[in-house]
UniProtKB/TrEMBL annotation:
<dbReference type="GO" id="GO:0005524">
    <property type="term" value="F:ATP binding"/>
</dbReference>
<feature type="domain" description="MCM C-terminal">
    <location>
        <begin position="274"/>
        <end position="327"/>
    </location>
</feature>
<dbReference type="InterPro" id="IPR027417">
    <property type="entry name" value="P-loop_NTPase"/>
</dbReference>
<dbReference type="InterPro" id="IPR036390">
    <property type="entry name" value="WH_DNA-bd_sf"/>
</dbReference>
<dbReference type="Pfam" id="PF01637">
    <property type="entry name" value="ATPase_2"/>
</dbReference>
<dbReference type="InterPro" id="IPR036388">
    <property type="entry name" value="WH-like_DNA-bd_sf"/>
</dbReference>
<feature type="domain" description="ATPase">
    <location>
        <begin position="14"/>
        <end position="241"/>
    </location>
</feature>
<protein>
    <submittedName>
        <fullName>ATPase</fullName>
    </submittedName>
</protein>
<dbReference type="InterPro" id="IPR048907">
    <property type="entry name" value="WHD_MCM_arc"/>
</dbReference>
<dbReference type="Pfam" id="PF21100">
    <property type="entry name" value="WHD_MCM"/>
</dbReference>
<dbReference type="InterPro" id="IPR011579">
    <property type="entry name" value="ATPase_dom"/>
</dbReference>
Amino acid sequence: MLFDERPKDSKKDLFDRENELSEILKSIKESRPLILILGIRRIGKTSLLNVALKESKVNYILVDLRSLDRNYSRGELYNALAKGLSLNKRVLEFLKGLRGVKIIGNEVELRWKGRDSLSIPELLDRLNDNRTIIALDEAQKLRGPLSNEIKEAIAHAYDYDRNLTFLLTGSEVGLLYNFLGIEDPSSPLYGRYSVEVKLERFTKEKSIEFLEKGFDEIGISVSEEVLEEAYEKFDGIVGWLTFFGNEYYRERDFKRVLKIAVSLASDEIKNLEKISKRYITVLKCIAQGNDNWSKVKSCVEKIEGSSISSSILSNVINNLKEMGIIENYQFLDPIYKLAISGFE
Ligand SMILES: Nc1ncnc2c1ncn2[C@@H]1O[C@H](COP(=O)(O)OP(=O)(O)OP(=O)(O)O)[C@@H](O)[C@H]1O
Ligand SMILES: [Mg+2]
């Protein structure tokens, strides 16, 4: 079902993306060490990742890192790894007898403390005994206290573990680049080559075809006008189109669906407010059409009623860019732009 809101995991439910999928499968076949799937939120990274893993017919572990916060602990990381390892029974077989690994039925426990604990390089070296893909969803979340240790392990595997392919996704593309540090001489991964697959929005034609096919599957017909409006408002972002399909089926009211989408986006923006209120202020100014540095600066100063240092402002703007929220003083997601105007 095209409008199923969970990330897709079978090729028949994956609309379009043939080129991206075949590029990933080819890179896996060639045993490329590092492949990146990049794109803004809701653009379909996890779906493509799932389908590529399945279609590759290679053993894999799939680690969902989304829930790691900025100061994640070793325990939280190992729990995420354990969950990812438990998905694949064959991989569990390969881990038997490894120090710090306990297999109970279909689940694995990893020990991260004490003398008989498991280290990440040991885990990777064992996985390397068989051809395995290490899939890390939202890999930029690995930034933080263990960042260097993880990068060293990946760099070691990159150089020596010929049977491993790392397949990473990132919605905060700039942060993922920063984490990997491929262009940063002080990073263990400096100078390593990665295959990059960038996911783009669907064109108008593709978006309308996607919606028509989806509505057809659930047996309702929707006017061309509504489909076009959905494309305009959701800007060809497949996750929003899927959301729209579902909600429109329930509500049959465009305005209402848009309102629900905006409130979802508002909840996500609230996370930025936790870092600093300034992020909201800067986004508000950008939403109002202030499209260069000095316009944003004077807008922020006007709202805050005080001057703001250039370095602080450039830090905020740069972070918003690296998080994949803005580019060239424009919003990357039109629903975020609508949502920001609802903030005080
Ligand atoms: N090619 C596709 N065909 C059909 N549905 C898709 C496709 N790509 C994504 N979707 C749908 O769009 C939504 C978002 O997809 P997905 O979770 O894969 O995106 P994502 O980029 O990983 O999002 P996030 O950044 O939030 O993790 C889901 O409902 C998914 O089912
Ligand atoms: Mg995802």
